[in-house]
Amino acid sequence: METSTVGQAPRPARTGSGANTPAPKRSRPAAGKPGGPTKKRWFTWTRATPYLLILPAVIMELLIHVIPMIVGFWMSFIELTQFYITNWSEAPFAGLGNYSASLSFDTSQGKQLLQSFGTTIGFTILVVGVSFIFGMSAALVLQRSFRGRGLLRTLFLIPYALPAYAGIITWKFILQRDNGLLNEVLVNGLGIFDEAPFWLIGDNAFGSMVVVAIWQQWPFAFLMLMAGMQSIPEDVYQAAEIDGASIWQQIRHITFGMMRPINAVLILLLTLWTFREFNTPFVLFGAVPPDSANLLTINIYGRSFINWNFGLGSAMSVLLMLFLVLVSGVWALINRKVNRDA
Amino acid sequence: MREQISFRIFRWVVLVPLVVFTVVPLYVMITSAMKPEVDVQGAFQWWPRNLTFQPFIDIWKTVPLAHYFGNSLIVSLAATLFSVIIAIFSSYALSRYRFRGRGAFSGVILSTQMFPGVLFLLPLFIIFVNLDKTLGITFFYQTLPGLIITYLTFTLPFSIWMLTSYMNGIPRDLDEAARVDGTTAIGALFRIIVPAARPGIIAVAIYSFMTAWGEILFASQMTNSTTRTLSVGLQAYATETNVYWSQIMAASLVVSVPIVVGFMFLQKYLVAGLTAGAVK
Amino acid sequence: MKIRILTAGITAIVLAASLTSCSSEPGGTDAEVKTITYWASNQGASLDNDAEILKPEIAKFEKQTGIKVKLEVVPWSDLTNNTLAAAVSGQGPDVINIGNTNAVTFQSTGAFFPFDDAALDKIGGKDRFIKSSFATTGAEGQTPTSIPLYSQVYGLYYNKKAFADKGLTPPATWEELVSAATALTDASTGKYGIVIPGGTVNASMHMAFIFGAQNGGSAFDKAGKPTFTSDGMVAGVKQYVDLLATDKVVNPSVAQYTEGAQAAGDFARGDAAMYMAQTSSGNVLAQNGMTEDQYGVVPIPAPVGGDKIGSFVAGTNISIFKSSKNVDAALEFVKFLTSDEEQAILNKAYTSLPVVTGVEGRFTEDTELLNTWTEILTDFSKPLPLVPGVQAFQANVGGAVVSLIAQAATGGTITTDTVRKALDEAEQKMGSTK
């Protein structure tokens, strides 16, 4: 890439230093950069460099995250219904009305939010747990080479590579009551049920949603765990084998031990992604899912775009945000402790 | 290495169910796409009794699939391009500089990543709609540029985070040596860091492209019939008169193949990029 | 206040970008050739089919008036969203079709051109329209923001052969309907007495409205407050859900029918002997291979002693956007589409009923069938509640009925209390903040 022009030309030398300042120097004493003494002036191009580098990102972050979050926070305090979407500055102030509506658990509204919260937690634990177990098992058995390993690896990754809706919509077809494969197997093939069960409505919907999410999610766990395992040096295993350790002991003591940092990142990522899952229920059930599968994100979505009550949706969003901040704070604390102990 | 019997059994116990679990939906997608519509409406058939490729022809007529395909391509490419470029600069800053506000900046990057998209969808919807109204233009709401902006809400932070991790893994001696030789910061970035970080950059690009390609939440509210992307457009095969399952399967297949093939070619980079963060 | 400043901030930042890329729409073309954009709803069998029907008529209009019309057919799934988007952003077509269910909701956004007396005069005056159709054009006591275009009602389709085989006559009361359906049901062969759109939210709201009305219930009181849990509404919804829950004359699979088409398919294939649907379903049945001589239509019957309501006044209205730069041309176009000649042509093509007096429905040669539909419209129909919350009413009550059907299909017992609880939850969602 052509770089020198990009690097030096664009900033007009306003404060006098500019592009012709001698190149290597440190921005701040702590930076650990090689070079000369720290300048006393509050502005130098060197010191500004990191800021200039992050400037586009900062602007974008402001536009797409920070400002919307502030707006969202403000929206949660007004009665933003269909009448005020265009004149939102005229929407009546609701005070904590939206919050008390979300959190009064004796009304259906609050009860639904609470139930939705529980559903989301259960969904997250199941999907992350099973995906991790599947991914770990597959990575372990594919760690040692044997015939067909490459093929299986590729195969397992397909569900992850598939666009989300393509995979989910195929599952939706499989789970159809009358012409789906699942009931064909269960009712006509194995004869487990006399009457074809429903998989997309009622309580079964939750199970269907979990299975479909695992199908999409576990290959990612597999991908990362496999990569992590490959970075464990072979001689560690060989040394252990000379010491007479069985495969199981090697897995327990070497693999699991070395994989700890990867596991931590992986579980965090999986948890965050699963917690905010929207695609699976939306494609399987549409914008109004059965109660058993009413995840928080889709609940907020429905509250806002189906019922045209953006104030309430925003209040629920803010509550969700607070919860996530809390959880990740706890995670960071635990993780710090784990790292220190290790 | 010697394999114990118990481990071999374990291998079979793990692989057989996982292969079935993975393959069955793929099999259903492929075979159902090759069945006539009437056969798909009836009880499920394991093997297509009447093999046909008609659904692959019909999909382009029932729904303006090519148009949606183009929209998806534009949006995904643009979102990828923007996030990669922005991420290169800011990751470099995060990885090589200690500056005031660094903690706050990376804090924002990290934390926004964990919030569900719906948190941003609501205010962005209101902001876009009102911006268009105030300015008297159609630039944000239900347009491709607007959709691209919303896609940056999830592609950008992840790109920055992943690329920073990757750059942290590149030995500092490399660029510091160049800096001593008189290269500017930007010069070092493009001459040393970017080439060294290529796998990481490719990984970021794949990730951004794939998530944008599969995105549904924003697309469902921020598009209209002209700006519709595949993720929402595919639902149009359930029309007022019929639900065309075989066409849905055929279309799913058609929109997936390029992505899956591309992914398979490039997945080793994704692995490298993803694990760099974990094993720094 | 703060937000205004913020908005202004964003505005300033993005303005530069938008200025460069904002394409200048040919809105301000020279005065001689006026162009209006028209979003038509999907009335026919497909979007293409709609375009085929409308294009020759539009050509006629262009020739008569010299006004150019840019046509876009929008599927119903997009129409509400797109309309709302256009309403809030002020960027939209000039003329648009809306479901008359939403007329008041859209009116409340203030984005639509009000048809005052002067405007009404330009399209031939209010008295040209059938009263019940015109009642759907906006909230009572306010200047209407839409004009009726196509009218539809619900009817009970029955399979003539299935009825003849069992020696049955079309039901005149709900009790007769249930007993006929029971006689026609044979679950072991997959034949059922009746099919309902069990998983379809908006159709389920329609059903709740119709059967609620039969039982003297009303979804809103005079002040526009929701009264979903009134005895009449609860009884009506229960009457409907019982078809599946206790009478067992419905295939439980319907709980997954999220598209109206799936129910039509069952009826057309002969898997269900009766089918409650709107006038235009004739088109869908034809698409599925069922010809007009194979079915008959009667009003959806009420229980003995109930109110004889078999439908609400469904249909499509046409509106003009306030932001239109060519209101006069748009009015011209509305006048054209609601003219006697076009009403006859279009309603024939769409198997719907004309909205103006003096034009007879002509979508079928079968005069008996036509008379039944007209009779339902005039004698058995009640307008939907004319309140702005009707959109939310549709989502919440429709959703409640869908979940009740789902419960019934998965073996749950549906009691009056279950129904009341579901409707109560729907009602609470309506006025959530206050």
Automatic annotation (TrEMBL), chain A:
It is found in: Cell membrane. The chain crosses the membrane at residues 51-75, 121-142, 154-174, 205-225, 262-288, 308-334. The keyword Iron-sulfur does not apply. Residues 117-331 form the ABC transmembrane type-1 domain. One of its GO terms (cellular component) is plasma membrane. Gene3D superfamilies: MetI-like. InterPro entries: ABC_transporter_permease, MetI-like, MetI-like_sf. It is a multi-pass membrane protein. Coiled coil: none annotated. GO terms for biological process: transmembrane transport. Keywords: Cell membrane, Membrane, Transmembrane, Transmembrane helix, Transport. Residues 1-41 are annotated as: Disordered. Belongs to the binding-protein-dependent transport system permease family. PANTHER family: ABC TRANSPORTER PERMEASE PROTEIN, INNER MEMBRANE ABC TRANSPORTER PERMEASE PROTEIN YCJO. This is Sugar ABC transporter permease. The lineage of its organism: Bacteria, Bacillati, Actinomycetota, Actinomycetes, Micrococcales.
TrEMBL record, chain B:
The keyword Transmembrane applies. Keywords: Cell membrane, Membrane, Transmembrane, Transmembrane helix, Transport. GO terms for biological process: transmembrane transport. It is found in: Cell membrane. GO terms for cellular component: plasma membrane. InterPro entries: BP-dep_ABC_trans_perm, MetI-like, MetI-like_sf. Residues 69-266 form the ABC transmembrane type-1 domain. The chain crosses the membrane at residues 12-30, 73-95, 107-128, 140-163, 201-223, 243-266. It comes from the Bacteria. It is a multi-pass membrane protein. It holds the Pfam family BPD_transp_1. Belongs to the binding-protein-dependent transport system permease family. This is Carbohydrate ABC transporter permease.
Automatic annotation (TrEMBL), chain C:
It holds the Pfam family SBP_bac_1. Gene3D superfamilies: Periplasmic binding protein-like II. SUPFAM superfamilies: Periplasmic binding protein-like II (SSF53850). InterPro entries: Bact_solute-bd_prot1, SBP. It comes from the Bacteria. The keyword Methyltransferase does not apply. Residues 1-23 form the signal peptide. Keywords: Signal. This is Sugar ABC transporter substrate-binding protein. It comes from Mycetocola tolaasinivorans.
